[in-house]
């Protein structure tokens, strides 16, 4: 064979050998192009499948949302109090005027308030806020109008309440199975997810508002707080209503707003459903909450503390005191750093308090602590927090002088509620609190609409009966590193939450 012919043969053989490689490369490029096209088409299909309207969701869940009307009997004033000064020459004239009108001024009258709630079972269990039904003599449930719904308001009874999370469980007896909604997993709610709030804002009837999850894991003032912050419009009357995700599941219970004027400015808070569902289950089973109790006083571990103690990182809960209780019986000491509880690492004090509270009363758990440069594991049998709180509450009726005087706190001048003030402000019997006698017009409290005559019934989601208790709530919040304190304020029977900066 000639050399030229041989070279041609070799080149042809090499070209044939390269042909499968080219085809393989072409097939790979074609395959990648097909996959890219399919992904684009799938994204377009998902976008097109997303509803352009929230009406289908509203139709799905609205029948489970209810309006709640509470009625409280307020004692009438005796005589012309508040109209003319006692001993005035006009006193007899006004008494005669009241007598001619049938003495209506002396008769008890009914004070009404409005709120929202939602049905969680076909046999009539309803969830709402505790502050919506607190101190109510009568509770009526109005259902969303429609076929298969109760046409008349139904009376409700209180199954149980939890002031710590501001949750109440009610029960109605309906003539038919009720439409209900289910709790979703609030831990899956992401910042930016769409949510829908339903309720009875400002007493205007059933109403829907939409927005997004603005923030997660907000803490206002309570030990068990886990709020979802949303810009969906929430106003007075929305309290107790549900916050839905796009699947129609309840991910929060609308509880509070931050506002300078008492109206929605796009900062609303809903208690996370994973907190609410646990509370509701306990209220349904026991009629009350039963939270675990470790029995220690704790504080967060700062970087400086961690370095001084030889810890690798600033995490865990530093024990500052061990009073009589489960922890002391198990051998925990002041200065221990709790690193894990029942097999779960402890991030900070807030995480530990919530985990202990969610643990079954009487359960024996392993607590791993850092002590004198090494770790130890102790076994603690948990007590019940509610029992411990009742035992530590001082006996009532000790009206000492400091609590009878006025005091300036957080831009407010407050005093204990006297019987005369109870009558003048029409405060129902059984309801206690601190009366605001004046407000500093340069303070945040004034900017947020608090005025003389308002009644503060709770601070840090705990009831108030004395000035010393308010001071204690302020100190507790500061020690816990919180920047604000949540107050429950009532005006003419209408409750609303106000958060005041502790730097005031």
Gyration radius from CA atoms, angstroms? 31 Å
Sheet/helix structural class:
alpha+beta
Overall mean pLDDT score? 81
End-to-end distance? 105 Å
Number of E strands:
27
Structural summary, described in words:
This protein has about 500 residues and is of the alpha+beta class. The protein is built from 13 helices and 27 strands. The strands form five sheets. Strands 21, 22, 23, 24, 25, 26 and 27 form a seven-stranded antiparallel beta sheet that branches. A six-stranded antiparallel β-barrel has the order 1-2-3-6-5-4. Strands 7-8-9-12-11-10 form a six-stranded antiparallel beta barrel. Strand 24 and strand 25 (about 460-465) form a beta hairpin. The chain is globular. The N and C termini lie far apart (about 105 Å). Mean pLDDT is about 80; it is low at about 45-50, about 80-90 and about 395-405.
Please give a quick description of this structure.
Helices cover 27% and strands 31% of the residues. It contains 13 helices and 27 strands.
Which SSEs are present, and which pair or pack?
Elements: H1 3-49, H2 55-61, E1 65-74, H3 91-100, E2 109-119, E3 125-129, H4 130-133, E4 138-143, E5 154-162, E6 167-172, E7 194-199, E8 207-218, E9 227-230, E10 242-244, E11 250-257, E12 268-272, H5 273-286, E13 292-293, E14 297-300, H6 303-309, E15 317-321, H7 326-330, E16 337-341, E17 344-345, H8 349-357, E18 364-371, E19 374-381, E20 383-384, H9 385-392, H10 401-404, E21 407-409, E22 412-416, H11 419-424, E23 434-439, H12 444-447, E24 455-459, E25 462-463, H13 467-479, E26 484-491, E27 494-501
Antiparallel strand pairs: 1-2, 1-4, 2-3, 3-6, 4-5, 5-6, 7-8, 7-10, 8-9, 9-12, 10-11, 11-12, 13-20, 14-15, 15-16, 16-17, 16-18, 18-19, 21-22, 22-23, 23-24, 24-25, 24-26, 26-27
